[in-house]
Specification:
Length: about 350
Amino acid sequence: MLIVDVVVAVVLLAAVWAGFSLRVVQQYQRGVVFRFGRVRQEIRQPGMVFLLPAADRLRKVNVQIVTMPIPAQEGITRDNVTVRVDAVVYFKVTDPVLATVNVQDYDFAISQVAQTSLRSIIGKSELDDLLANREPLNQGLELMLDSPALGWGIQIDRVEIKDVALPESMKRSMSRQAEAERERRARIITADGEFQASARLSEAAAVMSATPAALQLRLLQTVVEVAAEKNSTLVLPFPVELLRFLDSATDAQVLAAAASAAKAEAALTGGEEPELAEAAEAADAVEQLELPPLEELLAQSPLDGVTERRLEDGSAPDDHGADAHAANGHDRVRPPGPVADAPGADQDGVTGLGRQGQEGRS
């Protein structure tokens, strides 16, 4: 019976001793042993670890990659813009002894160094770099964190700037700047298109001036396009030369009527006064005036007159327009004084027949 009690006591003592001397280290951990307060250089690997009771003390260190967000830091960039920037740091412990002995709390230490480094990066950078060129800034921030972290047995895996918060006034200014830039590009593109179109139109005008029939074909094409859009609209092209012919014919009829009235009045009076004689001579001149045939006017191209006039006197298009304006009847030759004295004549020296002709022409 005594032997049994001794065996039971030994077993109990062994269990108690094992409870104080055996530890379990997880796969993602490493063990640092302190024996009588001095650190052992041997790192305990994952598994069952044996310790001397009352002599050794084990401290477990996590060697996983730690993700630590950096609180948003407010600073002024190099181009004097106030921003708020936050970031994130990825790091892990590579030397558990240094991480345990050299720094009291490496998590808090890395957080503080990351915040100060981020504020320093903000002051050295410009706003455009923070918004569009972050990769060099991330590398610079990582180098700034590596310097103290190496002495703590910590490796900085990577550092990333997450967000850049801008003031509302700066956002509105950037929006107006972007809008102005887009408008500038649109105007440049529009001006370039107009320049190219004007060059093509100039070439087309040169081709049409060399070939008058091309203008008629272009006119017919325009008629087809108008008819395709509005089927109820009928377009009839009217040559300008025909208008000029009708205008000249009407003026000739008015002058002829005025001269006939002057002759009739002279015949009634029975004498030939000087004014009536001048009116008769004007009537003879009108009768001798011959207008070109209508078929010849219609056969001519609208561009022939412009080209001939430019070749003759070298006048500009505006001068030709003025000559054409005068040819349309604005500088007409009025009959002499007796026409004004004819019955039914108005202040312009045109008889009633002439006025009827003008009303019919309008």
